[in-house]
Amino acid sequence: MRISDLTIVLSSLASFAMAAPASYGKTQLPDGLPTPNPDQLKAIELAAHGTLSNAPPPPSISADGIVNLQLIAFNENSEVAFFDQLIYNITNKVDGYHIKDEKEYTTILAALKAILAQEELHELNANNALAHFMKDRILPCEYIFPVHDLESAITLASTFTPLVLATLQDVVDIFAVGGDHGLARGVTAVVGQEGEQQGFFRILQDKIPSELPFLTTGVRDFAFTALQGFIVPGSCPNINEIPLQTFEALTVLTPPGPHSQDITVQFNDPNYDASHSLWLTYINQQNLPIVEPLHIISHDGKWVKAEALFPFDANEMNGLSIAAVTNSAGPFANANAVAKATLAGPGLIIVN
Span of the secretion signal (predicted)? Predict the structure, then answer.
């Protein structure tokens, strides 16, 4: 089932900046989250076509495993808010969200309602695990989603979902290194479910449902930074409890197509790093990071506008590419090494 005229031309989160935002100006998520009563939980499970796992968490967890759960809960709060707002806009026929074809309307709304409920269970799974380990649940913030109609909302969903899929790879790896193998199976179950969502979003954009043979990987700090772009500053009750790094924002001003070309980016430069050599480094698929020289176009003492090659042709850079301004040309062994050298990022680029 496809939305007619759903031609997607925007390719990165930053490129939505010109759209009128859809505000979710409340810190209370639907259905009593993060602590629904039994009747609310039952209703969520019915809508989700499945249940919250009743298997007990492992008896112990590493410190880094706690951070994993905190980031997952932080992300799920945002996703629940996004899909709750999207469903509201569609059902109330807000300007730009009206679906004229009744069959399309029914099919899309049914899918989104299931997705919302499934995201609610993801949120409960992470926050309940935190509570089990005597840690605070991560509470929701106030959100502003940079979308203005159904097309831009689906584009945004199909941009943050692959970032989630990239980050959950890092989460599972950290669980494995920390000996938290008892939590890995549940997270990989979520990976599959998020992949199904992404296939649905891609079909709505007249794309093939499967993006890549090996999905792009990422790191927690990049996701933590990107998600804060949806948050009203100062509205998160306990974001300070999540010990992850927040980078300077990186805006991709000229999202590329499926060919090699120069792209323009912009970032804040409080430490005047642009007075030294910088690079734009790309993480794509499961390949070694790709590094390109960054050429400064302008620098006003704060904001830097710069240009670098997006080397699509030599690297078949389909799907999600995570771009970062780095203070080193590497070579980088993996995404984690890129994050350690990052000054600004992530810039999210999706091709195909």
Answer: 1-19
